[in-house]
Amino acid sequence: MYSEDLEYVQRILAGESELFESLVRKYNRMAGAIAFGIVGDFHAAEDIVQEAFLKAFRVLNTLRDPDKFKSWLAGIVRSKSLDALRRRPSQKPLEISRDVADRFPGGEALRFSSTAEDEHLREESRRKVLEAIEELPQEDRVVVVLKHMEGLSYKEIAEITGSTIGAIESRLFRARQALRKRLDPSKT
Amino acid sequence: MKSFSCNQVGRDLWRYIDRELAATDVSGISAHLRHCDRCRGLYHERAREASQYRMTFLESPFGEHFVNKFRKRMKQEGLSSGPSRNGSLRGNDLTKDGQWNDDTSSVADGTSSTLGLPVDSVFTRRRFRRAATVAAMLFLIPTVVVIGIVFNPPRKISLGSFEAEEGFVTKGGIGSDGELIFQTVADGSLTPGCVLTVPQGVVARLALRSPAPGETTAISLSGPAELQLSKDAGPKAFDAVLKYGSLEASVAPRREGETFEIVTANARATVVGTRFALEFHDGVTRLDVWRGEVRFQAREAFGRAGVRVTRDSGPFRLSEDSVGPEPDLPSTSALEPPEVEESSGPAAADPVGAQRGKTPAPPSAPDLDNPVSGRGG
């Protein structure tokens, strides 16, 4: 069966290093979702993913099965994210900065936004969503982010996280219930 | 068709929204939702939740922005990714056998560079060139900025307009202060970089300016769908990303050097002047051409040449491992709403539907055969 990644890796190793950018383009969102899922901070996640791609480029020749580039990269990102978490001095490692929260809108308040009051509501709403995601257990958070940020299927998430489809489905279900409870307690 | 009880629908609702069910189950649940108010209410609630989570990540620092940053980082690290002539990577890149090929050390070890010039001379020239570039930039940038502000104050270029039928769409764009602004509106103008998110059951009609006066390009975006216009999009070179959902387009003919492209996460459709439909769900892009010709290829195309799709070719599909005709599905059926109602407006307002002899009016009930997709571009 034709494998795009296999061809990319073989050609990069054969000297067409510019093709690495195509792999970056293809997988940066997935890598970002994993890193954000673990560290809960987009700025940190961006740095982690940069470092992970650099490492992947440098040690690409050690990849035994080029067809498995995606899961190999996911492993590098996961490992770098966990390292970053361990190095954090903060007692509450997953705090989302106000700056980050401000950049990511979401929620019902978005629907009618023109006045200053609406603007305030919108800001509160997106902060609430990010804070609620932050509160999830790490494994659940990674699954939620891979699903909703990257739009991956249960099977793809299972492959990346090394879990089963059933486990992914139940984590997603549990996480969504927890998010609903936190964001709108009246509906639970 | 398989029939579903309320309990079964409740159990499978997230799988339905996440597009994890087989086609027969999707049809069964869609049928149940059409006549069960309670389950439909629950579906709308869950679909709104999914949309809310997705919106939270809409402007993450990843995507093309990240690729550009990473390219700069590679250059900073001396891992320039320019084309290689001799089979090894450039600068400090890895060689074919995985060993480091450090140009700096090889230059330092020898007495001459690859150009045959003395090492000192090469470095001096480089330093001088860099200094000259920096000096020129220091002078040029403020001058250009001042001239730009004085003679050409910043203004928003309008690429056309849009109108939502039977509802509202969310339009995201960069405000004058650089902040991301989201508005829920029934109509508005299309500006470069803007994002249109069309909810379930709503159809957004886009009218785009074309390079030639008097010609309009029409796009019909059926919810749930999301389309982002490129920051560099203009009437002569239009490109946009269909993050999920489906669209139909009637494109004014393009001339030499004028382009019209819509990409999905894995495919690129380049238009010559035609009418076509493009759909992206679950990693598969489906293209159906009614008139003219569209070049269809993998977004990262190598090893797979693009194909030219015409009306006679029938629908084409592109997934991770294949590109080719789709013989199993009837042409365009997947893109039409499940129940088409009588025309509610003049046919002229819908050139796509009018030319096809059908009016793709928004369904009165949500388009339940196309449940919310979480897949983004």
As a whole number of angstroms, the C-alpha radius of gyration of chain A is 18 Å
Query: What percent of residues of chain A adopt helix (DSSP H or I)?
Result: 55-70%
| Topology pattern of chain B, helix = H, strand = E | HHHHHHEEEEEEEEEEEEEEEEH
What is the third-level CATH name, the topology of the domain at 1-94 in chain A? Rna Polymerase Sigma Factor, Chain: A
Low-confidence stretches of chain B: 81-123, 327-366, 373-377
- Arithmetic mean pLDDT of chain A: 79
Question: What fraction of the residues of chain A are assigned to beta strands by DSSP?
Answer: under 5%
The CATH architecture of the largest domain in chain B comes to Sandwich
Q: Class of the largest domain in chain B, according to the CATH hierarchy?
A: Mainly Beta
* Share of helical residues of chain B: 25-40%
* Secondary structure tally, helices of chain A: 9
Structural descriptors:
heterodimer; A: 188 residues; mainly alpha; 9 helices; 0% strand; B: 377 residues; alpha+beta; Jelly Rolls; 16-stranded mixed sheet; 7 helices; 16 strands; globular; disordered C terminus
